[in-house]
Design a protein that fits this description.
alpha/beta; Metallo-beta-lactamase, Chain A
């Protein structure tokens, strides 16, 4: 479920930010936490999400539109593990959270993996989260894809050994080549957050059967 995205959802607060809640019968995870603690709080309550039940959380990279809401998360779930790229993490501790630096790809739960930090031309270290759904394939959740959404997706496929089913999140104004690569690799291509209107229109036009609309409040239920 998309807790916060740039695109609005009825009755929900929307802004430049990204946060997603992911639940299976084995674990519950928060991926990124938007910009504004107040916006995240409003949407979590409106969508009836119980952050107290989270097993762990993930920060894709150190930009405010992805970590700002963790201030609220720390009040709701003190001591929650946050898997983060290696960097200055004192503020997460100050918010009552338990940041765990990730230096390389790893399995963090049953059928769930982190790509580990992947570098970008801007020097930003970013990680993606991937989990496998039986009968579907690998779901990859990205933050802003500074290294390239296709690069992160390829890394997730390599780490998990699974075929891609969906890549969802911010693609960071991707090139057509990046979008073509994603469409070749994945059954569904779901640009959100910082992807931009041009990228969304391109995927919708060129790959209509693979495009999925994403906005605040979007819910994807995947079963066998």
């Amino acid at each position: 479920m998309v807790l916060v995205d740039n695109e609005p959802g009825e009755g929900l607060r929307s802004e430049w930010g990204w946060s997603a809640y992911i639940e299976t019968d084995k674990w519950k995870v928060l991926f990124d936490a938007d910009t504004d603690p107040g916006a995240l709080k409003h949407n979590v309550e409106a969508l009836n999400i119980q952050l107290e039940d989270l097993d762990f959380s993930i920060l894709s990279h150190y930009h405010g539109d992805h970590y700002g809401g963790f201030e609220y998360v720390g009040k709701v779930k003190p001591g929650l593990k946050v898997y983060v790229p290696p960097d200055k993490i004192d503020y997460l501790r100050n918010w009552g959270l338990n940041p765990i630096p990730v230096y390389e790809a790893k399995e963090v739960a049953e059928n769930a993996w982190l790509t580990g930090p992947v570098g970008s031309i801007w020097g930003i270290q970013e990680q993606a989260f991937a989990f496998y759904v039986n009968g579907r394939g690998l779901i990859v959740v990205v933050g802003c894809s500074h290294p390239g959404a296709d690069k992160l997706a390829s890394k997730a496929k390599e780490v998990s050994g699974k075929d891609l089913y969906m890549v969802i999140g911010g693609y960071h104004s991707p090139s057509k080549r990046t979008l073509d690569n994603l469409a070749e690799m994945s059954r569904y291509v779901c640009p959100a957050h910082c992807s931009g209107r041009r990228a969304k229109d391109y995927v919708r036009r060129e790959y209509p059967d693979q495009y999925c609309e994403v906005r605040t409040g979007s819910t994807f239920i995947l079963t066998e």
